[in-house]
Design goal:
Layout: E1 2-4, H1 8-18, E2 24-28, E3 39-41, E4 48-50, E5 57-59, H2 62-68, E6 81-85, E7 88-92, H3 96-103, H4 109-119, H5 129-137, H6 139-154, E8 184-186, H7 192-199, E9 205-209, H8 220-223, E10 227-229, H9 233-236, E11 246-256, E12 264-267, E13 276-279, E14 292-301, E15 310-311, H10 315-328, E16 334-336, H11 339-342, H12 348-366
Amino acid sequence: MLIVGAGFAGSTFARIVAENGFYIEVIDNRDHSGGNSYSYRDSETGIEIHKYGPHIFHTSNEKVFEFITRFTTLSGYIHRVKAVTHGQVFSLPINLHTINQFFGKVLSPKEARQFIEKKQIKIDKLTNFEEVVLASLGRELYEAFFKDYTIKQWGKNPKEIPASTAQRLPVRYDYNDCYFNDKYQGIPVEGYGVLFDRMLDHPNITVSLRTSFNDIRSEWRKKYSYLIFTGSIDEYYDYRYGYLPYRTVTFDEIRGKEIQGSAVINYTDASVPFTRIHEHKYFTPDHKYKNSIAYKEFSVATTSRKDPFYPINDEQGKAIYNQYKEMATQEKGVIFIGRLAEYRYYNMDQVIDSSMKSFDRFMQRTSPR
């Protein structure tokens, strides 16, 4: 079996099928496994750096948790995010402290609900991101925390972004400022690089880095029985129906003694060109470091199709993807899994779960009856 891509989708599938007797070659065009989740230790400071931006593992899926903890121990890190807007620092997600601070109130949970309900804008049918947030929080909080940040993040007016994107935004009427609600949360104690090395460490698995699928595209069926493709599905079909729209991120590095005092701070105002700053030593708060490293993060369009991060799941993107998806149903011996292949905004645990389910379907199709 050939698996293209050594991120969570490909590595999970590789490990499971290897343990079920298949021989696997995993290839990746990067010089490391782990995909966009990869992290490494900075040689100067000793800080674990998330190369492609912060990745905090969180899940309530017991099966996924049991799988990943075979290869790592999750730290006790709890993700808390701050936001700078209108010259002040607030807690995200929107919670009781954010509401009281923003409006200069001292409201109880019940009073805060009633207060926000009066600000909610009644919309009969929620069709886009803006309408979902307006209906949930009202215009003031929407414009302060979401409108300009969303434009910076996605390069689109929030009215053009699907309503489903707003479902990732929790709102709380207590003082809980933990960003995620999942049962399990943390970061691999030894880093994501070590996690992936262990996942792919099996006698039935061979890993070939700096290897492009394009180099073996025309020959793979002669050598392998199956192909698991985790790259972008439009790339697999040589962009026959055009490019799927993505956003990617770029980073400006900052080094110093102390930089911002928190792991992640979002900058929601349009006057600030970057979306957030992440200071990586705070992802391992139990460790003490003399110096620090942070990164300003910028969201940009993937005009070169290098490092696609976030699928823009608008009507144009859906229409293009559906054409590729139809072609994929006709493929023999090929399985498409993962964020890029399925054109979905998966979290890490959702990618693992998707790979597990794909393996189950694969075994049902290939097992003798």
